[in-house]
Amino acid sequence: MQLGLIGLGKMGGNMRERVRRAGHEVVGYDRSPELQDVDSLEALVGALQAPRVVWVMVPAGDPTRETVEALGDLLEAGDVVVDGGNSKFTDDQVHADLLAQKGIGYVDAGVSGGVWGLQNGYALMVGGSKEDVAKVQPIFDALKPPLDKESDSPAGEGAGFVHAGPVGAGHFAKMVHNGIEYAMMQAYGEGYELLAAVDLIEDVPGVIASWTQGTVIRSWLLDLLVRALQEDPGLDDITGWAADSGEGRWTVEQAIEHAVPMPAISASLFARFSSRQDDSPTMKAVAALRNQFGGHAVKAREVEDPA
Amino acid sequence: MQLGLIGLGKMGGNMRERVRRAGHEVVGYDRSPELQDVDSLEALVGALQAPRVVWVMVPAGDPTRETVEALGDLLEAGDVVVDGGNSKFTDDQVHADLLAQKGIGYVDAGVSGGVWGLQNGYALMVGGSKEDVAKVQPIFDALKPPLDKESDSPAGEGAGFVHAGPVGAGHFAKMVHNGIEYAMMQAYGEGYELLAAVDLIEDVPGVIASWTQGTVIRSWLLDLLVRALQEDPGLDDITGWAADSGEGRWTVEQAIEHAVPMPAISASLFARFSSRQDDSPTMKAVAALRNQFGGHAVKAREVEDPA
Amino acid sequence: MQLGLIGLGKMGGNMRERVRRAGHEVVGYDRSPELQDVDSLEALVGALQAPRVVWVMVPAGDPTRETVEALGDLLEAGDVVVDGGNSKFTDDQVHADLLAQKGIGYVDAGVSGGVWGLQNGYALMVGGSKEDVAKVQPIFDALKPPLDKESDSPAGEGAGFVHAGPVGAGHFAKMVHNGIEYAMMQAYGEGYELLAAVDLIEDVPGVIASWTQGTVIRSWLLDLLVRALQEDPGLDDITGWAADSGEGRWTVEQAIEHAVPMPAISASLFARFSSRQDDSPTMKAVAALRNQFGGHAVKAREVEDPA
Amino acid sequence: MQLGLIGLGKMGGNMRERVRRAGHEVVGYDRSPELQDVDSLEALVGALQAPRVVWVMVPAGDPTRETVEALGDLLEAGDVVVDGGNSKFTDDQVHADLLAQKGIGYVDAGVSGGVWGLQNGYALMVGGSKEDVAKVQPIFDALKPPLDKESDSPAGEGAGFVHAGPVGAGHFAKMVHNGIEYAMMQAYGEGYELLAAVDLIEDVPGVIASWTQGTVIRSWLLDLLVRALQEDPGLDDITGWAADSGEGRWTVEQAIEHAVPMPAISASLFARFSSRQDDSPTMKAVAALRNQFGGHAVKAREVEDPA
């Protein structure tokens, strides 16, 4: 089938390649001339036969909103727009309503796989009506990881793709996936730090590598940690500065909205916030209090010697 | 080679079987007559040719201590005792010192694999001298998972076995492994709860199954969660009561000892404590305070109607 | 001066009394006939001379929104509306904009003091323009706690009242106050629980009472905990079920919005969520995982004996 | 009565002064000649009439242990030793047993009050037998804060002093006090940071000062925060580096020992650990993982330009 794909960056570019390898025709548009197959949204829409499927893979927020609005003007009833970006799930109903005015369908797709997706396939969590999802299914099948027949995984055909519910459900499921990801990374990080803190452990990378088979905590993330430690055994070349994208924040916000206790995921999110602070106002206040009641020494900000 | 194995319960029994399948001779002792190959420690030691390797697989604490002491009386210089149980790493040096008085070697081995170990192999983290570890190596090789040549795991030969350092390092590494396990389980649990809390997600087990391929959070634990949800899609048949064994507690204690921040693992440990409380004294105090300052209603303990 | 006061419940009723004791005239309206001075908003507005000050003390959300809208129709340029309820600070600018269309001023006032406010005074955190705040100042002065000249408190005249910033700043400051309150209550609760958990402490209420003078942790909340324990030394008559109002949630949401690490306050919020769960889906998942990998016993839901 | 006092530093020196002001005779010993009344423990014991009370106010651990052992040699049956330092409660029974061999009594006293104690009095939490505590009571009465008759505190005579239980109970109660202190300080710190993070709040010190009367969160610590902000409104002169003493760690250890969930106090302890790290190994691992799966940029350690 044909697919229109908007946004050909790190993710979109690899997805174009994977869909093409599966035998589909992909017409790609990107603002960068060197990446694009066509040079405008109009040209992209014109190159596709109705009913069209157009996949949007641009940054969440304004760029996605503007792209969806533009497609609302260009597409026609029976076409389907897929938002495969990292949109907040609450944006999806807005997008769907906007397109529904013209009879255009909408599917939201949470996509996991990162830079490994071209090779391994992309896991897909989608939301939308059965009818709309069905129109995109050949593309989903091309993107998702192939069934691993050697694997003893219990998920069977359910691995790598789910139609999670109505519009919004795909991005919600992907959001929760990322929240879990935060806490798993934090868990490995805390364990790594404790191993590295004691003289007793003489081979920290070796311990972590040993965990990759036969243990309860083996995982793909653990494999990646092994790789990272092979490249830099003491993690000496990087600093402990960790960005966060929206999904972790939204996961905790939703937990609060629904009164779900979420101590581990929230702790992991806050650890990232802390990692980016040069100095912590909270801990300044704590230090100031200790000084007030106990006369405890505080670390004064170092002052340049005026001489 | 020959192995003496003490403790033939759920773990020890399967390990005997796996070692035998690898072609070694195992002489097993257990207090239960129906499990034992020989009926006493004396008989076990008598059945082995020096230099002997005796693997202790009994509960941590007093049972292990008493077994090590008894072996100290029965074994001779050049023999090696392996503690493969869940001992606290601080016990290991005590055991090693006790046996060293008679020239007997000591190796501590953290073992992961649970009920799946017979089939998949057991991951092993060991501590001790090079010489002592070498004496046990054929048994370690029999127990550990075979190298998965199909796998693209980066650990290679290092997967499933590590000599982590001197006496104590094996149990320390296993302890940290279990601490990480707590936070990973908590992460999946929190994510599951949020998915289940919203109407938007129509297929919670399906979402979780979809995560098993192509995602960042795929892991063996996630596969197990898929299995659990296949057996009981709403987890209706079990209660949220989670035991904890010593390793999680010791991990947090060690973090405190070494000033390692450990917010996610500790939160996971505390969540288990909470899960076992019928009522929380902390939250009683909170409720009492709300009542004091705001006249907020408290839930009074229900009183049986005297009529 | 004159004050129109809408909402004469537990808080509003006591505030009317305190303002009257200070010599001001209060015209109160409430939906309940037995509480009201006048029987409609129209009558309330009619009873006041311009420029009027009308204080809204009704539940946050729709009730406040509707009251502000109604006042927008009834009041005139130069009048001022004060929202003294527990509105989210983001509502304030909406209210202010709505009233500004008619030249009516708006002040948001976070009010602390609970059932003790009539006796001790109410702490006030207000937001708005200097001009609008000035019009309400005599009422603020009547409500706030009197300056304690015996006290060695360093705040001096600044105790009990602050003009924190523009519209919204009052409710924001009150929101943060409540977030801190959550963690303080949790701190005392956790300490209480640990004292009560050990046989070593023979007089738990006595220990807590002793902390009320000379210690670092003495506070008004601690005094209230002493009272609660005097009434019920083992807190046997209440259950550990703790509600939460919006402010705690909003505080954590704002922390996430501004990338402020907030581990203690968020932990306190989540503890309240947990306190209201009969069973925890998170911990069901954890228990299910333990069962899967270790064959660990789970607590099955008890089934009534069919016989 | 007479009191022997060992250790005349910041705390001990002020305590000597307060006891003397109450009309008692204090014989003080310190290693520093400029502080001491007598120049040896022997001289101190010799200057007191039996039955003697000797108060030890030296650093916890070895210094206290050695002092207690020395007093065991010098004192006689019927005398009482008080350990008023920051000893771990588990040390107390060891000390008591050691002295009991010679019929010497032992009382452990947790002391709160810091640099403010001379002026305000010291709160005392004590453990020991009724008989031993009674022998020291006049000294306790001299040290503790006077009953504040103006106060409406509910504790009455129970404020500032408690006999909490047998040997060890005093230090246990003080340990819990300090754990609570950690979380209260963290709570104020987190609230301060959020206020300071938003433009909406134009007067952060003013907001905090306003909280000191009439609010739910008023406390002595809050007064101290007001003072700190008066001295340095933006806390610009100090860094967010917060030490921790043993009590916070022991509180969390005891919570783990007794399966008491302690999320807020532990989070506060870990925040202090983080505050002292130049770089976080945990967050290095997290950053390395993000880089592995997403190609996300990491902050490389800055390298000096070789040119």
From TrEMBL, chains A, B, C, D:
Q: Keywords assigned by UniProt? A: Gluconate utilization, Oxidoreductase
Boundaries of every 6-phosphogluconate dehydrogenase C-terminal domain copy: 170-297
Q: For this chain's UniProt record, which GO biological process terms are given?
A: D-gluconate metabolic process; pentose-phosphate shunt
Q: Does the keyword Oxidoreductase apply?
A: yes
Which GO molecular-function terms appear in the entry? NADP binding; phosphogluconate dehydrogenase (decarboxylating) activity
Under NCBIfam families, the record lists: gnd_rel (TIGR00872), PRK09599.1 (NF007161)
Name the family.
Answer: Belongs to the 6-phosphogluconate dehydrogenase family.
Name of the protein in its database record? 6-phosphogluconate dehydrogenase (Decarboxylating)
Which source organism does the UniProt entry give?
Answer: Klenkia brasiliensis
